[in-house]
Each structure stands twice: as C-alpha cells, then as structure tokens.
Amino acid sequence: MNAPSNKAVDPITVQILRNRIGSLMDEMHHHFFRSGYSTIVRESRDFSCVILDPKGRLLVAPPMFFHSTAYGYFVQRIFELVGDDGLYDGDVFISNHPYDGSMPHVPDMGVIVPIFQNEELIGFAGSIAHKADVGGTMPGSTWGQATELFQEGIVYPPTRLYRAGVYDKGIERLIATNSRQPELTLGDLRGQVAACFIGRDRLRQICEEYSTVELAASLDAMIEAAGAEFRAALSQLPNGTQEAESSLDSDGIDRNKPVRMHVRMTVKDGQVEFDFTESDPQGARASQYSTSSGRGMLLSGFNRYD
Fold first, then answer.
1. Which long-range contacts (CB under 8 A, 24 or more apart) does 284-288 make?
2. What is the pLDDT of residues 258-284, one digit of tens each?
3. In the predicted model, what is the mean pLDDT of residues 146-168?
4. 3-class secondary-structure state, position 267
5. Rounded to 5 degrees, what angle do the CA atoms 161, 162, 166 make?
6. Exposure class string for 174-199: b at 16+ Cβ within 10 A, else e
7. Partners of 234 in the beta sheet?
8. Which residues fall within 8 angstroms of residue 149, CB to CB, at 6 or more apart?
9. Whole-model pTM?
10. Pairwise CA distance, residues 272 & 284, whole Å
C-alpha cells in the first residue's frame, strides 16, 4: 500500500471514510481519557490520538492541533531506522525525544502502531501524551532553568515497546526506574497503547468492509482534497509582506537580556514564506521548539485564520 493507488474512488465514499476515521479517533480519545491514570490525561487532556496513512500522513487533525506535525516526522524516522520492510504486525514504537523522535518536549511520549491487513501496511495509529515524570533534575520533568536536554529527563529515541506482538518488559523497567511517578507514567503509557490498538482494530474493520484497494484510494483522495482546499485558501491571501515582533523578558539564565522574537511573512501568488532569521539565536534555557512543533504552531495560526 506504499504505492499510490490509481483506482477511481467515489467522492461520497471518501467523505464517509473521512467521517468514520474522525469518529474512530474520537473513540480513541474517549477511551484514553477514561483510562488515564494521571490528572494530566483525566483533567488537562494534554494528549492526542490519530490515524495516519501508510506514509505517515495525517488524515484528520486531532483537537490538540499542534501535535499534528509531529506524527509524520516520527513515522519517517521509524522508516529510516528499520526500513520499509522492518515493520511487523504487532509492533509498537515509543519515543519522547524532541529531535530523534520529533516530540514537542521531553515529557511528551509518542506511540506509533503500524496497522497491517493481510500482511499489507494500511496505516498507523498514533498518540502523544504528556507524562507525569520521566526523570531529570526536577519532579515533573519540566524545569525552567534547564540548560541541556538531559536535565529534563531520560530521552528515548524511537524504540520498540512491542516487537511483533511481544512486550519488552526491559523497556518497561527502564521507564519505571527513571520516573518519580512510575505508576502514573506507565499507566498513562499503557492507556495510549490500548487507544492505538482500538484505532488499529477499527481501521482493519473498515478495510474488511471496503477492501485494501478502495481504502488506499480513499486515503489518497483525502490527502489530495485537503491539499487542494488549503491551496485554495492560501490563494485568497493578498500578496504582500507582514512583520511581527515580540520578546521574552529573558531566557531565564541571563535575566538582564530580553529575547527578541521576529517573523516576516511574505505572501506571493498563494505561496507563503515565514522568515525568522531576525529573531535572537537559540537561548541557553529550555525554551526552544523542535522543527515539527514550530511547523505545528504555524499551522495552528492558519487553522484560526478567518
């Protein structure tokens, strides 16, 4: 299913499947929320659950919109590490690494589950959720005075928690040993995995109803339609350049030096460029965003544009 499908697809079927995928994502969110161990999940709802196509492309955006861009980077990194043929039915990958796994920050743990039907990859289920504690200098793994990644907690590159359906208890012990709140951390992680299994099972059911070929064509059509709609919206923006500037009081380390943030947005014939080069260089404190999170924030801005 990695190759594009040439099958003509009924637009009504595409819309039905788009709504069904959105509904099953709601189901994933609901069950994870109900099974959460920590108040981060049960009250703050600092998490997201998604369904992706076989290339890691997002089909329906989650409510936690700025998570949207992280999933594609995570899946592409998994492909880089294991290859196109290195995924197995029953695999579960985890990561909280902001760069190697493209997570928003160290306390956010991502889960990716490849979905197979008749030994063919048909998509991925994914989830990102903030964890109660993954180690580091301060309880909660969030410290404003951190000057390096390792002070925020132990970082896991994309790693198999399950290999072909077999649970790796060694990874569980590693996570538990490096957390001040192992029960909350592992409880929420297990809830994420279970939510992804729900997404996996529901997509398989859809595949049984519509066949892998029709599902593949419909997923491609969803992506193409979303791209066409977004390009049409961008084409309505007037050509020109706009600039905005703000500042942080400091980076938290050198408290006498404000941190300048500057962006220049240039619109030309439906193409939009964001230029941040006049912003101050990276600061010493833990106030940076990864590439995926930065792009997620930009898309969030467009999502609210009227």
1. 284/147, 284/251, 284/252, 284/253, 284/254, 285/144, 285/145, 285/146, 285/147, 285/251, 285/252, 285/253, 286/105, 286/143, 286/144, 286/145, 286/146, 286/147, 286/151, 286/152, 287/248, 287/251, 287/252, 287/259
2. 989 999 999 999 899 999 999 988 877
3. 93
4. strand
5. 140
6. ebeebbbbbebbbbbbebbbebbbbb
7. none
8. 98, 106, 155
9. 0.91
10. 30
Nearest 5°: the CA angle 280, 286, 302 is 65
Residue-wise pLDDT tens digits, 163-213: 999 999 999 999 999 999 999 999 999 999 999 999 999 999 999 999 999
Tokens of 181: 């709140």
Tokens at 255, concatenated? 């408290």
Query: Which residue has tokens 């594009």?
Result: 4
Burial class (CB in 10 A: 0-12, 13-18, 19+), 134: buried
> Amino acid identity, residue 280?
D
Q: Show the beta-strand stretches assigned E in 47-119.
A: 47-52, 92-95, 108-117
Element (H, E) at 167: strand 166-167
Segments making up each domain of the chain, as ranges: 11-229, 240-303
The set of residues, in sequence order, having a beta carbon less than 8 Å from that of 105 and lying 6+ positions away, is 98, 142, 152, 286, 293
- DSSP one-letter code for 65: G
How far, in Å, are 52, 54, 191, 217 from residue 223 at the CA level? 11, 12, 29, 10
